[in-house]
Write a structure and sequence with these properties.
By secondary structure, the chain is α/β, with parallel strands linked by helices. The chain contains nine helices and 17 strands. The protein is globular and about 45 Å long.
């Protein structure tokens, strides 16, 4: 499995509760804290996460967010920026208008300066048509098998999934995942994650029996042990994990402290057969932003120019 040995993170300049994304992100929670306190706590969590990863010799490239325009969700870089092992860089159409300024040309220019970039695909023009596809929030990508898993929602247009998959030689598997109230889950990467030989999947969220049967068969046929989590665990981000490797080639499974707390011991044991779990506290970012550890990471699959 393609596992990134370097990751990109954006240090936020104005993290906070985003009213526009709260329309369909039911993981966001309002708080009594002031805007300044939310931002201060989020910065502390961000810096601690970077330090924790670097202590494990995981290569983290940190880019500072710009103070203007104000971008409350800039920390969730994976929603607009994705790279591939083929040297491609993808820029995606975003649902919330106040998130679109997160897409910064200087970040793309930096990537092209530091890494071997074969192609940049910018899909942003579909925003004008009301068609959205939010990076590896919307898409759980199997680069080895050329399969894209996508849960349909306002953020994940089935038309866009098919267009993107066809343009890049992937097969798309679409399904509907819902919460307890029957509402579509806003992003696929809070429903499932893929790792080397395993997959975490909120089976309860996929109500259509044939979708679940087909999804199980596809995952198992491509060599993944399925580790199910419940909807309650999903809401604590127990499926919003990511596998990365450090400079020595050692693999780690990154997850939030919230996810760690809700996972049962038998679930942790099954995951730890594949790689050590590395829990990181990001409570403020999870509550105010409605995203977790995986959402804060853009994998860099590109080859460095000096390699």
């Amino acid at each position: 499995m393609a596992v990134a040995s370097a990751i990109l993170m954006i240090r936020p300049a104005a993290f906070g509760f985003n009213e526009q994304t709260a329309r369909d992100n039911f993981f966001q929670q309002r708080t009594e804290l002031s805007c300044l306190d939310i931002h201060r706590l989020a910065l502390s969590e961000f810096d601690n996460m970077v330090n924790t990863l670097r202590e494990k010799d995981i290569t983290v490239k940190v880019v500072e967010d710009t103070p203007t325009p104000v971008k409350p969700d800039a920390v969730f870089v994976n929603n607009w920026l994705v790279t591939s092992p083929e040297g491609k860089v993808f820029v995606f159409p975003m649902y919330a208008a106040n998130r679109r300024p997160e897409k910064r040309k200087e970040i793309l220019d930096w990537l092209k300066t530091e890494y071997q970039v074969a192609e940049v695909q910018d899909w942003s023009h579909y925003e004008a048509e009301g068609r959205f596809l939010e990076g590896t929030g919307s898409l759980v990508i199997d680069h080895d098998q050329k399969i894209i898993y996508a849960g349909v929602s306002q953020r994940t247009s089935p038309v866009m999934v098919e267009k993107f998959a066809t343009a890049n030689g992937y097969h798309a598997f679409l399904f509907l995942a819902t919460d307890e109230a029957g509402r579509p889950v806003y992003h696929t990467n809070v429903v499932m994650m893929r790792g080397t030989g395993y997959c975490i999947l909120c089976t309860e969220a996929i109500e259509e029996e044939w979708d679940l049967i087909a999804l199980r068969q596809l995952l198992e046929s491509t060599g993944h042990e399925i580790i199910p989590v419940t909807r309650a665990q999903m809401h604590a981000f127990a499926a919003n994990l990511i596998e990365v490797k450090n400079t020595g080639g050692d693999h780690f499974i990154l997850l939030s402290q919230s996810a760690w707390k809700v996972l049962e011991e038998h679930q942790k044991a099954r995951l730890e057969k594949y790689a050590p779990l590395l829990p990181i506290p990001v409570d403020t970012i999870e509550k105010a932003g409605g995203g977790s550890v995986r959402c804060m990471i853009a994998e860099i699959f590109l080859q460095p120019k000096n390699s």
